Amino acid sequence: xxxxxxxxxxxxxxxxxxxxxxxxxxxxxxxxxxxxxxxxxxxxxxxxxxxxxxxxxxxxxxxxxxxxxxxxxxxxxxxxxxxxxxxxxxxxxxxxxxxxxxxxxxxxxxxxxxxxxxxxxxxxxxxxxxxxxxxxxxxxxxxxxxxxxxxxxxxxxxxxxxxxxxxxxxxxxxxxxxxxxxxxxxxxxxxxxxxxxxxxxxxxxxxxxxxxxxxxxxxx
Length: 220
Hints:
- This protein is α+β, with helices and mostly antiparallel strands.
- The protein has helices at 7-17, 22-32, 112-121, 125-148, 151-164, 167-170, 175-180, 187-199; strands spanning 37-41, 46-47, 50-51, 54-69, 75-80, 83-85, 97-111, 203-206, 209-213.
- The strands form 2 sheets. Strands 1, 2, 3, 4, 5, 6 and 7 form a 7-stranded antiparallel sheet that branches. Strands 8-9 form a two-stranded antiparallel sheet.
- Strand 4 and strand 5 (75-80) form a beta hairpin.
């Protein structure tokens, strides 16, 4: 049977399924990070999954980052501390993806081989499994929404995601740029719909920055 959910139903379903296993991520970081190298990453800095010729994973202690696709720079996922990157894609071409630092961050890095050995040594497979499921769900959710929704539904969803970001992030990026970096929508189309939403009183924008969402109808 082919069951089709509305955009609102899909949003509620995926939101409930993507609960972040923060305690498990923190558990892994507490056990593994002493064996890594700590460093500070500045806003806008690019981090690669290959470092000194080795595959690397990153542990995010403070701040936030995005996972981007090489070539067009599309944002596939956004994560705030605490988080671990470079584990779920360890069997794929690491050059196809990169990490961009959203705001000044405190991080640790270590060779992926060492990370896997630590997971085995400390018996952290269950916590790692929860992290992998969460990461896969986040990326799958993003791909599902941008491939099945109308332009308005995509913008509606991305505005809701933007509203969840920290004030530091939300106040330093326009809603149009945020949406453009995460979708295939044209800038002109995004600007048109945002202008119509603002004129209708559904959203509050200040010089393009999202200030508040009053109400976003399912259809517009």
